[in-house]
Amino acid sequence: MLLTSALDTARTASARRLIARAATASSSRCLATATDGAPEATPKRRFPKLDDGLTLGDFVSGEPLPDPESPSDDRSDFWPRLPSFLKHPIPRGKSYTSIKQDLRGLGLHTVCEEAKCPNIGECWGGGKGTATATIMLMGDTCTRGCRFCSIKTSRAPPPLDIHEPENTAEAISRWGLGYIVLTSVDRDDLVDGGAAHIASTISKIKQKAPKILVEALTPDFAGKGEETIAMVATSGLDVFAHNVETVERCTPFVRDRRANFQQSLDVLITAKRSAEAAGKEILTKTSIMLGVGEHPDEITEALKRLREAEVDVVTFGQYMRPTKRHMKVDRYVEPDEFAKWKQVAEEMGFLYVASGPLVRSSYKAGEFFIENVLKKRRAAAAERATAELSAAGAKADEVSV
Fold first, then answer.
1. With 70 as the cut, is the pLDDT of residue 33 above it?
2. Annotated binding-site residue numbers for [4Fe-4S] cluster
């Protein structure tokens, strides 16, 4: 009897607890329910809805779908689509992997990766003696902020790696090349703009591989004095390259405001004069991007001024927007127009011109040509020197007799 009474009491208490919980839940739901007449909240989408104007009916109707390559006229944010001749394969292969491992193991950076060069697969994927990478000196962070360039920027980049000149020379000696291109970020934070670091790297490369030809794509060393340019030009360098990038009118909108067209011309002039004064022969080289808003007459004027500055080599390439944070492409230049500018530049007297949509300032085909030109010139100079010594010796013998 007592047991039955205890069970009834427990059941009653349990029932009361359940009723209390139900009442609380109902009250909570009532409070959370929107008031009558209030609009229902629309659930937020994690991603914006894609609206291309097509429905399921368009696909099952059997009618042809609109061409995705032909955007509608009402798109206010339209910019030119990438033409087929600018598309390139994904880089891969044994040589590509080997070069990448060498660079990572020695802590080196390349402009090929940092600037998202479209030719990386072609250059890194070549065979022994032809595969190459353009090593970027002084780190991966630049003090300039050009609107076309994807390299990181900072007012105070990390300090220079004192082992970089030696590591660069070691990597290049492994590849067994006849021609190598170096480039660098701008380092306005350094007293000499990094000139001594670049010159040291070139000297160490020449020590490890005396026969290799070295091209250096340099900063403008603005405000650092002509001696910084001379230091690099006389360090054993074979090709001194500095890019004007675009025509004079477009320069303020394309390059960092600290750079200008005439300043770049002065760098190329100073480099050649400094080398000649030191009894060294170098070629000077520059590059122009097309598709940033330039006009034909401005390109012609830029080429005339480059020839007046005795620049030997010029390259033309298509500007390709690296990310949506960079300036838009004004237009994609057709291959026929690149061929036209190649002809115009050659008729002006440039030693070599590389011109094409995928041409970049360090272009492999151009390197082979320049290598042959320099070797022939130096062989001819050596023959002349030998002949002069022989003539001088013969004359001395006649005098002694």
1. no
2. 112, 117, 123, 142, 146, 149, 362
